[in-house]
Amino acid sequence: xxxxxxPARPAQPAAPAAAAPAAPEAxxxxxxxxxxxxxxxxxxxxxxxxxxxxxxxxxxxxxxxxEAIDAGRAPAAAPAAGPEPAAAGSVDARTGLAESRRAxxxxxxxxxxxxxxxxxxxxxxxxxxxxxxxxxxxxLRQSDPSGPGLMSYVARFVVAGLxxxxxxxxxxxxxxxxxxxxDGVNLGLAVQTDRGLVAPAVLGAHRLTTMELDGExxxxxxxxxxxxxxxxxxxxxxxxxxxxxxxRVDGSAAIINxxxxxxxxxxxxxxxxxxxxxxxxxxxxxxxxFAFDHRVCDGGAAAGFMRVVADAMENPAAAVAxx
Length: 323
What we know:
This protein is an alpha+beta fold. Helices cover 32% and strands 18% of the residues. The strands form three sheets. Strands 1, 4, 7, 8, 9, 10 and 11 form a seven-stranded mixed β-sheet that branches. It has a two-stranded antiparallel sheet with strand order 2-3. A hairpin with a 4-residue loop joins strand 2 and strand 3. Helix 5 crosses helix 6, helix 5 packs antiparallel against helix 8 and helix 8 crosses helix 9. The chain is globular, with a radius of gyration of 28 Å.
């Protein structure tokens, strides 16, 4: 039986609707289709949402991320609401000293700081070192002034060490719980520039002779200092060699260049007393320091790599003939 409905109310005139406030435009999600692009931006300390895309419809490509890294255009986070930073000349509350200067961090420095901080926070690193008698290596270099430089020989020996211990030439894929090894070596070189420390890489270093490595190292170092190194060279390293001896420093516990898993440091070569065949003599001694990611190997592999490099430096003629 149909229900009885109450009589309909007479229609009331519609009240004028209040003007609704305009809804804020939804923040547009960054248009990225490649996981590699996101990873590149994340490792460089860039916010992918603030990188301008040049692809169709604003698609963010690897080129966009590389250009942002090269130009040091890492966008700063929006400042939190609060008091303005103290002006230079104000008194520091902790030390009681006047501040002589305040300077904003450049985009390049912010990117470097983010990368180094991530390396320290994510990588359980360990450091080993060894003193090396480089007398024969120096003698070999001096015997041919127009031949390869010392760094090209060391680079050749590093490639040999990575061939013997390939786990040190890779990265950790934490998301998938996998250890990745590369088929080839892009040897990064720490270079001090006006903008700061960078690590461009000799691409395909495993395919080059000692003389070819020498030419590439000289070209790449000059290009990095002049800002001419390519994006691939600036971001494609798989292992880093740091010659802090050029800064007249004996040793250093270097920070691994994330996402790489190891870095080798070379100190300055000095005349030191050394025992050879039971007799004290003066030799050319340098120190190698090696920082590695303990997730990829233990001390045995790290020591094995170090001995490959150190033994080759102590007997370079035989090593070059054998490699």
